[in-house]
Design brief:
Blueprint: E1 7-9, E2 12-14, E3 21-26, E4 29-38, H1 42-59, H2 64-80, H3 82-93, H4 97-117, E5 125-127, E6 133-141, E7 144-148, H5 156-167, E8 171-175, H6 181-193, E9 201-203, H7 208-217, E10 223-227, H8 230-243, E11 246-250, E12 255-259, H9 265-277, E13 287-293, H10 294-309, H11 329-344, E14 348-351, E15 370-373, H12 380-383, E16 390-396, H13 399-407, E17 411-412, E18 414-418, H14 422-431, E19 436-439, E20 455-456, H15 468-472, E21 474-482
Parallel strand pairs: 7-8, 7-10, 8-9, 10-11, 12-13, 12-18, 13-16, 15-16, 18-19
Antiparallel strand pairs: 1-2, 3-4, 5-6, 6-21, 14-15, 17-20
Helix pairs in contact: 1-7, 2-4, 2-6, 3-4, 3-6, 4-5, 9-10
Length: 495
């Protein structure tokens, strides 16, 4: 029997106003129907906003440490249900259980970190320039936050956004990617079980071009946080700019791992396999470019190709699986187009390049781990985000040339350099034009207590995670207390 799921609006699980539904199927096995989810409309967003505004009036008056207590209980519940949540995520988006367990752990870490920030929403107390006067700042919540999240981290990214927003005293409307609606449904159930007032959280499922658009355009949603493609982010940015909304964008990446002649090649090999083919290449931080210095290029490519061919594809819920499916047929078709583009532009296909077929693989969206060599800086394989298991290898003569290749794209999320030269390592930290740089580690591996985000067309300057995100979800309020008993005039009147 097919399970039908609902939105969570105004403290109730409710059917969509449209009375329309969409299927959620396992990308590793299209015969496996997870359930039907609401294909909501703008009216559902209107109802969610009205409820969230009521919830905000309650939640903003709750002391921040008490808000933190709720999130601590959320962390406990996530920990107790880790295996269940990992299985749910792998079933609906495909990556192996080892990875989805990590996804849950990010949520746990984010919950506990947020809980402690309930006692650390620091302002500043500074001297006034006038006698008998007190000057200080404090943090205040903003209102209703609209959160639009992607498929590749079904739990971690919603928690990155929702937990800091809630800790700061805001109400939240979550619009998850339509590929992973089940995980967000369970996350909302956990928030409610932990004691979050029901109208503080709303969950609206549906298509981005309908409910995502309605959420971004709603006049009573002053804060939007969006993770997704640069193209969609451009629309979101234009709308939020016109409507004077606070906006955080986390978009694409074209991340490079640089391996220099003096690197530990065993370490670099493990790093690029994980960075390029973990999550089937479907990470904004995935290693999509491998920049090799000429002295080690040929030997490294030979070893990499052999290892990549040995990766085991399959259902991520089965033991021994290294690489799961792509999330959808559209994602797989996009990867196939880039195989044609790379070949047409003169790159050499040395590994993969086709659908993975045979037996159970025929029921899912599997694609072979793929490696191109002889990729030219400036070509489309070097410049464009593919979001799949495709690695482009670029040969360079020097560290300086490697840095230039890394910086020569419109994105600036993550980068990596493998070297035993401490001087070059510190130069990389300074010169690579990215929000994140790893030394002797792959381009993936962000930790919950540090800021996450990028430069150029990867984002708009805000960061998720760490301490900075709490500034995004709160306003600075300045207070002055004059206890002199007389009119005092500040600044220019006194000089």
């Amino acid at each position: 029997m097919t399970t039908t799921y609902k939105n969570f609006i105004a403290g109730q699980w409710v059917a969509p106003s449209t009375d329309a539904w969409f299927e959620n199927r396992n990308p590793a096995d299209q015969d496996d129907l997870i359930g039907l989810f609401p294909a909501s409309g703008a009216a559902d967003i209107d109802a969610a906003v009205a409820s969230a505004r009521r919830g905000f009036e309650i939640w903003k008056r709750t002391p921040a440490p008490a808000r933190g207590d709720v999130l601590r209980r959320v962390g406990d519940l996530l920990a107790s249900r880790k295996e269940e949540l990992a299985d749910i995520m792998t079933r609906e988006m495909g990556k192996p259980l080892a990875e989805t367990r990590g996804d849950v752990q990010e949520g746990i870490d984010t919950a506990y970190y947020a809980a402690t920030e309930g006692r650390r929403l620091f302002g500043h107390t500074v001297p006034s320039e006038l006698a008998n006067k007190w000057a200080m700042s404090m943090r205040r919540p903003i209102g209703v936050c609209g959160l639009i999240t992607p498929f590749n981290f079904p739990l971690a990214i919603p928690t990155w956004k929702a937990f800091p927003a809630l800790l700061c005293g805001n109400a939240v409307i979550l619009k998850p990617a339509e590929d992973v609606p089940h995980t967000s449904t369970v996350l909302v159930e956990i928030l409610l079980e932990a004691g979050l007032p029901p109208e503080v959280i709303q969950l609206v499922h549906g298509m981005g071009e309908v409910v995502g658009k309605a959420l971004v355009e709603h006049p009573h949603v002053p804060v939007i946080s969006f993770t997704g493609s640069t193209e969609t982010g451009r629309f979101v940015g234009e709308t939020c700019g016109r409507m004077h909304k606070r906006l955080s964008l986390e978009m694409g990446g074209k991340n490079a791992q640089i391996v220099l002649d003096d690197a530990d090649l065993d370490l670099a090999l493990d790093g690029v396999l994980w960075g390029a083919f973990g999550t089937t290449g479907q990470r904004c931080t995935a290693t999509s470019r491998l920049v090799l210095q000429a002295g080690i290029h040929d030997a490294f490519v030979a070893r990499l190709t052999e290892r990549a061919k040995g990766l085991r594809l399959g259902d991520g819920r089965k033991a021994g699986t290294d690489v799961g499916p792509l999330v959808s047929e559209a994602a797989r078709a996009k990867v196939e187009r880039y195989i044609e583009i790379g070949t047409q532009q003169g790159a050499s296909l040395v590994c993969g390049g086709a659908r993975a077929v045979g037996g159970a693989l025929d029921r899912g969206f599997f694609f072979q781990p793929t490696i191109f060599t002889n990729v030219t800086a400036g070509s489309r394989l070097d410049q464009e985000e593919i979001f799949g298991p495709v690695l482009s290898v670029i040969k360079v003569r020097s560290a300086e040339e490697a840095f230039a290749v890394n910086n020569g794209v419109r994105y600036g999320l993550s980068s990596s350099v493998y070297t035993s030269n401490v001087n070059v390592a510190f130069r990389a930290l300074q010169e690579l034009d990215n929000g994140i740089t790893y030394v002797n580690a792959p381009t993936i591996g962000a930790e919950a207590h540090l800021p996450f985000g990028g430069v150029k067309e990867t984002g708009n300057g805000h960061r998720e995670g760490g301490w900075e995100v709490y500034e995004f979800y709160s306003e600075t309020k300045v207070g002055y207390v004059d206890y002199s008993g007389a009119l005092q005039r500040a600044q220019i009147d006194n000089y």
